[in-house]
UniProtKB/TrEMBL annotation:
MF (Gene Ontology): amide binding; ATP binding; sequence-specific DNA binding
Pfam families given in the database record: AAA_lid_14, HTH_8, Peripla_BP_5, Sigma54_activat
PANTHER family found in the cross-reference section: TRANSCRIPTIONAL REGULATORY PROTEIN
Sigma-54 factor interaction domain span: 639-870
Domain of life: Bacteria
Keyword set, alphabetical order: ATP-binding, Nucleotide-binding, Transcription, Transcription regulation
Biological process, per Gene Ontology: regulation of DNA-templated transcription
Listed InterPro entries: AAA+_ATPase (IPR003593), AAA_lid_NorR (IPR058031), AmiC_PBP1 (IPR039570), Homeodomain-like_sf (IPR009057), HTH_Fis (IPR002197), P-loop_NTPase (IPR027417), Peripla_BP_I (IPR028082), Sigma_54_int (IPR002078)
Organism in which the protein naturally occurs: Aneurinibacillus danicus
Protein name according to UniProt: Sigma-54 factor interaction domain-containing protein
Cross-referenced CDD domains: AAA, PBP1_AmiC
Length: 959
């Protein structure tokens, strides 16, 4: 009998029911077939594969739950599955949380690259790049785009539009139908009206089937092309509905290879059908990819699997597939097929070789014009600066060699050429200009340089093997410049006159080693620099001055140390001299000294060959508060806290600041959402443009429209002359912070989505669209997944557009370790603004703060400290007496009449109810105390006014 140790579990996640079930059931079956085959051949080193299957019913929310269950409860080694991008995006945080891999087998819109996902599917460049020009040439130039309303069709259609227009075609109509819709009469009327040459469909599942049927019945005699309709959908329709339709995929079940025929036969024997779609074959390959990786490493951990998958290749039914080392997508063939009378595809065209995946294809297309030639001078300088250290290092290493060299970056831009002083023969390629693109030189096509760039591997071509005659007395060698982690940075190409060397392979290898060494040296330098930066950052948080000494020299000083040095140079030098004089035998661990009237304590920690000298003042002016930064100028390093989860959020914010992606901040009231938003803005390249904040919960519903989009003159009675610009316009070029986005009415969400997609606003009552370039940072304290799944009060398409970067902020009760730093920060702030002397917190008061349940989070803590700071008046220490009573006295003592003995707590619901009652009573109590003053009550509770209003509504408290 098999024991558990003899099994390797794989989580299989598909919609076996739900609107996309028609397609996903086939993918699921293909996975099971692969697992069966592998087990029949003895499994992996004697270990059987065991599938643990979950039905996700086309529901993203359910997908997240099931994924977590498979990982946590079933302990699967990896997940295979999913069809819609909504479901994929929904589980990304789960994959990250448990560092688990997903093998995703469905063609999708690209624009994603995640280290926990292997994309076993084509991306648009592998389907559309050849398909669209082919359609234009063979079927016609005017296109009508119809798709299901979700991420893939909308984004794919953007690319199609781009490709159609760049091949002198046109889009004459574009329409979307909700997922699962089966009534297309209105759409067909529209298609008939605009009379396109070809209809391009990205409808999925049941909708696609209904559309084809109704299209045929309606009698429109036009070709339909699709990048998503495959054998599965076709097989559910009578042949006359679909004969003559076109699709492009890497795989059709009619491929005539031995591997495919065996796959089709086995599929037919197992499931009784030979209708196998590309998505199904992808699913089948996903299992094989995982299996090959497991066989390679013989380990189950994600890191080992990831490494084993990089560059992995095997012969699949569709032909050879290779995992791209950088993008985790696949190199695949591209094919175009036409449905025949058997409901199968006749293959009309296929690419001879595999096509490299370009998940960020749209961006590539956008920059294509630039690439053909000329990186403007500024850009070239910028790029050169980026590679300067590396180039210098390589030049230094090879300067003694009499060769010609060309350096191109990873995108193919020529950054530098040099010849080390040798006589240049008059050959064409020496005209290569820095700033141009390597593609512009077709005479370099079969050289080591270009091959290395295309294949990202060391490539060399010997003299007579070159196709152009001028190069036949030269050897060309292209050496990829890749970091230790495998990131490809570009290629350095060498051209060597063939009579100069006799041993070609020896010189090739030597040059490769020289380049590798140069890359290593640069990486080490970078590491040293970043270590220094980390040290600076970490030590900046310390309240003490730090000096690190080695060989009687100060080799590192933190910010406070530098400040003290500036203020009291003699004093610091004195201390150091004293320490140096005692070197090394008499180095004490603690010293006390007087600086003028200030007593300082000096601690010395020895860790040969380093000595860490910490200087702390006791009750002195040296220990004066740090000037606290203006919140409007705050950057991530100013965010106070060192809690592990908090630092993770800060590090995400840092990364977000480097991109232009939208950000979604999730967190309770007062956890610092606005502060994070400002920090991201201030650290981004939009920092000198406006940061505009709007609280969606604080503005009456009917005014938000005008607030956001502005209004034109005469838009409504009382509208200002000349109209008024909205927040979008005000934030143009900068960042718009949409706080409490979860409270935005549904109709407005639709308008917002439109603005985000079209990048233009039209003022209310106005007609002219105004182009806008605004980065959105949205924040909410609601669980948007639940709002989407259960209440339908938040649009999933808007959600996915906003949550490109999701940052969860930690409530104060989960980062009690930060209370001390926050208190110090608030005191410093008060000292700086009031000019009063610095205060300390007593141990007892500190313990009370630690025990308190921080309902209003950091804002509440800040209010408590502010209050205590003033109440403590001239005292240098804040004690328990200065804290508000509710912080340390049980609520009952405050006459809250909360008697637990009358309640029996049987389940979570009871606890929630009691919490609800407690919170309600607390709010009423504070309202009574403040005579119903909203601002004071909010301040007292440490929540914002809009949050208080929301809570009053939630608890049905009338004023
Ligand atoms: N890491 C931090 N360091 C210092 N101060 C902080 C930090 N986080 C929050 N604060 C302070 O806490 C208070 C609340 O922060 P902020 O307004 O950014 O929270 P919020 O989550 O946007 O609140 P709300 O949801 O109620 O609008 C502010 O006074 C802010 O300065």
């Amino acid at each position: 009998m098999m024991t558990k140790e003899h099994e390797i579990k794989i989580g299989i996640l598909f919609s076996l029911t739900g609107t996309t079930g028609i397609t996903e059931r086939g993918q699921y079956q293909a996975c099971l077939l692969a697992i069966k085959q592998i087990n029949e051949k003895g499994g992996i080193d004697g270990r059987r594969l065991l599938s643990v299957v979950e039905d996700i019913a086309s529901d993203p929310y359910l997908t997240a739950q099931k994924a977590e269950k498979l990982i946590l409860a079933d302990k699967v080694v990896a997940l295979v599955g999913l069809y819609t991008s909504a479901c994929r995006k929904m589980i990304i945080s789960t994959l990250e949380k448990y560092d688990t891999l997903l093998f995703y087998p469905t063609q999708y819109e690209g624009e994603e690259q995640h280290r926990n996902i292997f994309y076993c599917c084509p991306v648009p460049n592998q389907q559309l790049l050849h398909f669209i020009p082919w359609i234009i040439e063979n079927l016609g130039k005017s296109f009508y785009l119809i798709g299901s309303d979700y991420i893939y069709p909308r984004q794919t259609n953007q690319l199609i539009r781009f490709l159609v227009e760049s091949h002198q075609g046109s889009i004459v109509g574009e329409n979307y139908s909700s997922l699962g819709n089966q009534k297309f009469y209105q759409y067909l009327k529209d298609i008939e009206r605009v009379n396109p040459d070809v209809i391009f469909s990205t409808l999925v599942g049941d909708s696609a089937v209904s559309f084809y049927k109704q299209f045929h019945q309606y009698g429109i005699n036009k070709p339909i092309a699709s990048s998503i309709t495959a054998e599965t959908e076709i097989s559910t329709l009578r042949n006359f509905y679909t004969k003559g339709y076109y699709s492009s995929f890497p795989y059709f079940s009619t491929i005539q290879s031995r591997v495919n025929q065996s796959f089709v036969n086995q599929y037919q024997q197992t499931y009784g059908t030979d209708r196998i779609s590309s998505a199904m074959e992808n699913a089948y390959n996903s299992i094989y990819l995982l299996t090959h990786a497991l066989e390679r490493v013989k380990k189950l951990d994600t890191d080992s699997l990831r490494k084993a998958l990089s560059g992995l290749s095997f012969e699949a039914p569709k032909g050879k597939i290779v995992v791209d080392t950088e993008t985790q997508h696949l190199h695949l063939h591209s094919r175009i097929g036409k449905v025949n009378e058997n409901g199968q595809f006749d293959i009309l065209w296929e690419s001879g070789t595999t096509i490299a995946p370009s998940p960020f294809f749209k961006k590539l297309l956008d920059s294509d014009k630039d690439k053909q030639n000329v990186l403007g001078t500024g850009k070239l300088e910028e790029k050169l600066a980026q590679y300067e250290v590396l180039l210098d290092e390589i030049k230094r290493s090879v300067h003694f060699l009499p060769y010609l060299s060309v350096f191109i970056d990873m995108d193919g831009n020529v950054l530098d050429t040099y010849n080390h002083g040798i006589e240049l023969p008059p050959i064409t390629w020496t005209q290569i200009q820095p700033g141009s693109h390597i593609k512009a030189y077709s005479n370099l096509d079969e050289t080591g340089l270009k091959l290395a760039w295309e294949r990202k591997v060391l490539s060399s071509v010997q003299d007579t093997m070159h196709t152009i005659s001028q190069l036949q007395t030269w050897h060309s060698i292209g050496i990829p410049i890749s970091s230790r982690s495998g990131t490809f940075n570009g290629v350095i190409g060498f051209f060597i006159q063939s009579d100069e060397i006799s041993t070609f392979s020896f010189i090739t290898n030597s040059l490769a080693r020289i380049v590798e060494y140069a890359v290593d040296t640069v990486e080490q330098k970078h590491q040293q620099v970043s270590l220094h930066t980390i040290l600076q950052d970490v030590s900046a948080m310390m309240s003490d001055c730090l000096y690190v000494i080695k060989d009687k020299r100060i080799v590192f000083t933190n910010v406070r140390g530098q400040q003290l040095f500036k203020q009291k140079k003699d004093f610091v030098e004195n201390i150091m001299e004293d320490i140096f004089n005692r070197f090394p035998q008499e180095i004490p661990s603690v010293l006390r000294k007087k600086a003028n009237h200030d007593l300082v304590e000096i601690k010395i920690v020895t860790s040969e060959p380093y000595y860490y000298v910490f200087i702390k003042e006791i009750g002195s002016s040296l220990n004066k508060s740090q000037p606290v930064k203006d919140k409007r100028k705050i950057v991530t390093k100013d965010l106070v806290g060192s809690n592990e989860n908090f630092l993770k959020a800060v590090s995400l914010a840092k990364s977000a600041a480097q991109t232009t992606a939208n950000v979604l901040l999730l967190g309770e009231s007062g956890t610092g959402k606005e502060l994070f938003a400002r920090a991201i803005h201030n650290e981004s390249n939009r920092c000198d443009k406006p940061f505009v904040a709007i609280n969606c919960a604080a503005i009456p519903k009917d005014l938000i429209n005008a607030e956001l989009f502005g209004y034109a003159e005469g838009a409504f009675t009382g509208a200002r002359r000349g109209g008024n610009q909205g927040k979008f316009e005000a934030a143009n070029g900068g960042t718009l912070f949409l706080d409490e986005i979860g409270d935005m009415p549904l109709e407005l969400q639709a308008s917002l989505l439109r603005v985000l997609q079209e990048k233009e606003v039209t003022r209310i009552g106005g007609h002219t669209p105004i182009p806008i370039d605004v980065r959105i940072i949205a924040a909410t304290n609601k669980n948007l997944n639940q709002e989407i799944a259960f209440k339908g009060s938040f649009r999933s398409d808007l959600y996915f557009r906003l949550n490109v970067f999701t940052i969860e902020l930690v409530p104060l009760r989960e980062r009690l370790d930060d209370i001390s730093a926050l208190v110090e920060y608030f005191i410093d702030d008060l000292v700086a603004t009031t000019g009063r002397p610095k205060k300390e917190l007593s141990r007892e008061a500190f313990d009370i703060l630690i025990k308190h349940n921080w309902y209003g989070n950091i804002r509440e803590l800040s209010n408590v400290i502010e209050r205590a700071f003033y109440i403590s008046d001239n005292s240098a220490v804040i004690t328990k007496e200065h804290l508000p009573r509710y912080i340390f006295q049980p609520l009952g003592v405050m006459d809250m009449e909360l008697d637990f003995s009358n309640h029996s707590i049987n389940n979570v619901q009871d606890i929630k109810q009691q919490n609800h009652d407690l919170n309600k009573k607390l709010i009423i109590k504070v309202l009574l105390k403040t005579n119903g003053n909203i601002s004071k009550t909010a301040k007292y509770l440490g929540i914002s006014r809009p949050t208080l209003y929301r809570k009053l509504k939630e608890y049905e408290i009338e004023l």
